[in-house]
Amino acid sequence: MASRTPNSRGRRPAVPEGLNETWAKDLTDQFRRTLSTKRMNALTRNTTQQQQQSPNAPPSYSSLRNIPLVATAPSDRNSLRFRSMLLSLSNTPCRWENPGLLDEALRSIPLERIYDQAQEESDLFLAEAASLGPNTKPAWGYQDCVVRALMKWFKRHFFQWINNPKCGACHAPTIAVGMAAPLPDEQARGANRVEIYQCSNAQCQAHERF
Predict the structure, then answer these.
(1) Which end of the chain is more exposed for a tag (fewer CB within 10 A), N or C?
(2) Which residues of the chain have pLDDT under 70?
(3) Which residues have CB under 8 Å from 196's CB, separation 6+?
(4) How is residue 56 annotated by DSSP?
(5) Computed from CA positions of residues 142, 98, 22, 107, in that sequence, does the dihedral angle turn out positive or negative?
(6) What is the per-residue pLDDT for 152?
(7) 121 with 157, same domain?
(8) Furthest C-alpha separation in the chain
(9) Would the pTM of this model clear 0.85, i.e. be above it?
């Protein structure tokens, strides 16, 4: 069977060797524009529907009742806990912008296979749209198919769901026994809490942190 060069398909982009700042910035700008357009369209639809239902009624301010007039720093326990969680979650996406981690992630992803599957699915959508008429657009574009192929690979091949981890010493099933605070190295990897499991083998009974 003849080998296929990476440029044998016109619409498929070349596999990136590294993730540079320009590529990431362009992708971020596209995402922001798409998200902004969707939000504006949703707000326009909601405003139009409200005006049609009650054109003379004043706007509802029920959603603003619990907002203080002057911003104050949180002081109670629940507010401080929520603030801490919000800051932690806000910092999480910043780690995804680390060029070294992005390059390492790209090395783990079978990009050639992802692009091949996306191209095949995109061709099917194009053929389906062409059969419905000259003005019919495909249900999904090529970039959509890339995301779909990446999602399938992640869920079916890369990711594995675990309820109870196996014992690291004897590989026997484990039983949940409680929770524990994360160790410093676990916190560095993003862990907020750690589940403790004990080996069900009576001859082992080792503990696993998960």
Answers:
(1) N
(2) 1-21, 23-24, 39, 43, 46-69
(3) 176, 177, 178, 179, 180, 207, 208, 209, 210
(4) T
(5) negative
(6) 93
(7) yes
(8) 77
(9) no
The answer to whether residues 168 and 208 touch, using CB atoms and an 8 Å cutoff, is yes
Residue ranges making up the domain that contains 201: 174-209
76 burial class (0-12, 13-18, 19+ CB within 10 angstroms)?
exposed
- Tell me the pLDDT tens digit for each residue of 134-183: 888 998 999 999 999 999 999 999 988 888 899 888 989 999 999 998 88
- Asked whether residue 42 is domain-assigned, the answer is no
What was the pLDDT predicted at 10?
Answer: 46
For residue 64, the model assigns a pLDDT of 56
Domain count, the chain: 3
Report the length, in residues, of the chain: 210
The three-state secondary structure class of 70 is coil
Q: Which two tokens stand for residue 96?
A: 């995804």
**Residue 114: how many other CB atoms lie within 10 Å:** 19
